[in-house]
Design a protein that fits this description.
heterotetramer; A: Aspartate Aminotransferase, domain 1; seven-stranded mixed beta sheet; four-stranded antiparallel beta sheet; 14 helices; 17 strands; about 40% helix; B: alpha+beta; Sufe protein. Chain: A; 7 helices; 3 strands; binds pyridoxal-5'-phosphate
Chain lengths: ~425, ~140, ~425, ~140
């Protein structure tokens, strides 16, 4: 365990965009607090893709020529790195997709259409992202299965009693939960959820879009069956998602996207599919994106996920305390820092989040406002929208101060 | 610039919206939302002799979308439908005095116009498909 | 119509990779003849992505902040450009996917599962790429529909008499053909195929992965119903595919990938989907890739697709004549240049294409060998594999000479 | 370097493969192909007293894959199954004298070993699952 704090000043030098000027007349230095939506990219990631395009760009897997071999090696090494990053048993359990959303859909279409039957229950939570709701709704419409939502209590925690009741009473066939809420920041008791599910022979899908970037994730330790996340939320490029599936399950999954590279032999009326994991990667992949992601993984590994987490805890603590001084503010999610990530959702008086974001923007501060693709949770919280600030390794206390000051300016503008 | 956007009149319409509520027995009622932020508007209309006899809206959302809806209802109340047909994006932005919004916020300002035009399309859909088509307006779609 | 020839020397300056040294000890300058697999990228494309990552990287559509607005504008402008490039009526008819393969799968899953019924016939050709075969096989397995393959004659042309017979005798519900074969180079008589299909009320899907990069494509002129292609085969980045669907058809298509951004409202048990085309773009898209593709479209538009085509015709003519001097060579595909693109597949004596590619590689020449994801065609040609050289705007006569010389060396090594 | 790869002996095995054909009544027969290039190998084996009594292959593909298959059949013919179990990637590459192939071509050289090991897994699958497992070899998979 590395115990030394992270050197934010040095880290900031690695991110070209942090020098960007924004706001009225380009007068403000960018304060980027929209990391839960997507993070910024360090030079090493941008350069890795440049390097690929400038010196060994080629299609992978089928080429005998040197560029093709180099590109294939770089692509497949990334698969190994991903496996290591989340401690999968084998790189064969790692499938590259377009984003976390496609990864979830892949499982809903492939595993889901084969295994979910009429009247089966799929368990989600009220804090799921739309990407972990809509695919199951589409599936349920087809299969006439049911979706059941575990409740969220007023402190932003999952109601584990709901879970016990549902496991006992309903024909649960799948549990799919996000490890960390992108709105409340709540970190779920994954180990417990998975253990209880497995005791009932129910597999568990983990939407790790918000956890893998911020926490040490270990798929063997939690023993989850499926796990999905996106490269772009962890310093990597857009257009790359990752799906982990336990090999025993993956082996039995029918293909999803059909086409080149996922086959072994194609005949007029039938096809022999390729070995794992290639069977699930049809067509030309986002090769540059995967290679860029490789650099992002190296970058995060060099820092160490424990230090990433510690830095976020520290900034979040500081921000929560700064915000709590502001009048008429409502902050959502757990109070206890240990149970939450670096995401703070809030509302101030009758200032609508959209209006707040516009005011922030003039201060050069990028925050997110809206439903955060979590409308079921918005209904639960009985709000139309929230504002959200989310942090990453390059955010500083000074940025939090600027943010808190801008909130005061919003109060002034709204004459509160 | 925010000071320009959130002028007294916008905040007033936001906090004290005109024509907010429902109509009993409307001729047409329609709902839409902005997928980008979740702002919602419902429009309820009573039409008589090709005029908007009565109009009410319900909705939730940002100051811009709600003030814009409120001001729009005032603007078209008791006006001929032909006026609604000709209302442009620019008319709305001028009416609410916000001509330099960024692309994301423009959508907030125009949501109510979009819903109003949709309600006209719906109103004419069966009676007079040709007129319905006239209310289709690509400039307010997003 | 621009009549002046394309200035290849200048164009070559725009591609960093063309300075790459490869082969034994890095002693050879790269000769890249694997363009049908993927093309190289000019600086403008690489730089456009760098610019995005370095100065306005943000998630799109939902952000109020400046970076988000800039990124959204750049992304949506690309959609407009694509629409213009293929002459679509509206940008709403353009959907970004992961690659051409996913675009075909999207239609097979969404339109196909809704419209293809038991015993319906889907018409393909013997020269289709696996990406335009496997999705229809998966669909047919589910729906118990039938796939019928139009034959290819010994000159490499589509047997149009087959087509007439099938249209007359079978319950055809979809025709899906590639506009240009990635193996034979054959350009199909698309207008005729589509006219005849429409006379029978049958929609036509065009796999344009090999045509949009090389020919002027006009979806209104051919009146095709669906069209798919990949950015990476036309100077653009990996990870971006394009699907065009006529609006009347698109409007009636159920969603495919469910998740964030493709919805308008999500409730616990139901969802209202977003307007077109967003309904089909679930999750965070390959924003950088799309923005890079924008630069590729500008680059090609500035050259003019007529000049691209003319250059390829000229190089192909030169290459066909150089190859025809080599003993024991078999060249596949139409002899008439007007009917073919810049793709040459061939075999020499008993030298297996894989062995040939290895020998070429030592000469610094990248060609492709194998089944080219067209095993049905390989069966038809009764070969296990072919070698393939494919050209693009930066290829020169000198490169063709090097290639022809290397073929002679292969004969020597194989003691023929 | 190509001159090193395509030595006389490789071309000889490619053009005059040993043990090519089928067996009547084999104990195990198995087919696999290299998804990367379409090379195909079928192996037919007759096993007696834990020895490979007879072996034949069919296939089509490049000089490396076919010569490698031909040389492999010579190598294991009449040998105990335990020898097959222990055969490594390196053994094959040394046997055919090609130790500096690139990653794509290595797969050609190893296809026949992969198929041979698969045939052992199949042979033992029902009789003796534990032994079957012993023949699983991650190093020859691709
Ligand atoms: C004719 C044809 N169709 C489809 C494809 C698939 O394209 P992609 O791999 O980019 O999905 C290709 C490219 O290999 C092709 O040549
Ligand atoms: C919890 C959660 N799940 C899923 C997603 C979807 O990720 P992507 O848009 O990259 O597919 C997100 C990101 O917005 C998220 O926060």
């Amino acid at each position: 365990m590395q115990k030394t704090a992270l050197s934010v000043d040095e880290i900031r030098q690695d991110f070209p965009i942090l020098k960007r000027k924004v706001g009225v007349g380009g007068s403000k230095t960018l304060v980027y607090l929209d990391n839960a939506a997507t993070t910024q990219k360090p030079y090493v990631v941008i350069n890795a893709m440049n390097e690929y395009y400038s010196s060994y760009n080629a299609n992978i897997h089928r080429a005998v020529h040197q560029l093709g071999e180099e590109a294939t090696a770089a692509y497949e090494q990334t698969r190994e790195k991903v496996a290591k990053f989340i401690n999968a048993r084998s790189a064969d359990e790692i499938i590259f997709t377009r984003n976390a959303t496609e990864a979830i859909n892949l499982v809903a279409y492939s595993w889901g259409r084969k295994n979910i039957k009429r009247a089966d229950t799929i368990v989600l939570t009220e804090m799921e992202h739309h990407s972990n709701i809509v695919p199951w709704q589409i599936l349920s419409q087809e299969k006439k299965s049911r979706i059941c939502y575990l409740g969220v209590d007023d402190q932003g925690y999952l109601k584990m009693t709901d879970y016990e009741r549902v496991l006992k009473k309903e024909p649960v066939r799948l549990v799919s939960v996000s490890e960390m809420s992108n709105v409340l920041g709540t970190i779920l008791p994954l180990k417990e959820i998975i253990t209880r599910a497995h005791e009932n022979n129910v597999p568990v899908f983990v939407d790790a879009a918000q956890s893998v970037p911020h926490l040490q994730v270990d798929v063997q330790k939690t023993d989850c069956d499926f796990l999905a996340f996106s490269a772009h939320k962890m310093l990597g490029p857009t257009g790359v998602g990752i799906l982990y599936v336990k090999k025993e399950i993956l082996k039995e999954m029918p293909p999803f996207i059909g086409g080149g590279d996922m086959i072994k032999e194609v005949h007029q009326q039938n096809t022999i599919y390729n070995d794992l994991p290639y069977r699930f990667e049809g067509g030309t992949q986002n090769i540059a994106g995967v290679i860029g992601f490789s650099a992002a993984l190296d970058y995060l590994a060099a820092i160490g996920m424990d230090r990433v987490r510690n830095h976020e805890l520290e900034i979040t603590r500081y921000a929560l305390s700064a915000l709590s001084d502001i009048k008429d503010i409502t902050i959502y999610g757990p109070k206890n820092l240990r149970d939450r990530g670096g995401v703070i959702s809030f509302n101030i008086a009758d200032i609508h989040p959209h209006d707040l974001a516009t005011i922030m923007n003039e201060h050069g501060i990028a925050i997110r406002s809206g439903h955060h693709c979590a409308q079921v949770l918005m209904e639960r919280l009985d709000v139309a929208a929230t504002s959200r600030a989310s942090f990453y390794i390059y955010n500083t206390r000074e940025e939090v101060d600027l943010f808190a000051n801008a909130l005061l300016d919003a109060r002034r503008i709204f004459r509160i | 610039m925010s000071d320009d956007i959130y002028r007294e009149i916008i905040l007033d319409h936001y906090r004290n919206p005109r024509n907010k509520g429902r109509l009993t027995d409307p001729d047409v009622t329609i709902h839409d939302s902005n997928p980008l932020c979740g702002d919602e508007i419902d429009m309820h209309l009573k039409v008589e002799e090709d005029r908007i006899k009565d109009i009410k809206f319900e909705g939730r959302g940002c100051a811009i979308s709600q003030a814009s809806a409120s001001m729009l209802t005032e603007m078209v109340s008791n006006k001929p439908l032909s006026m609604v047909k000709n209302l442009s994006k620019e008319d709305i932005l001028e009416n609410i005095g916000l001509t330099n919004l960024g692309p994301a916020r423009i959508k907030c300002a125009l949501l109510s116009l979009k819903v109003l035009k949709m309600s006209m399309v719906k109103y004419y859909a069966d009676k007079d498909p040709k007129s319905a088509g006239d209310f289709h307006d690509e400039s307010v779609k997003y």
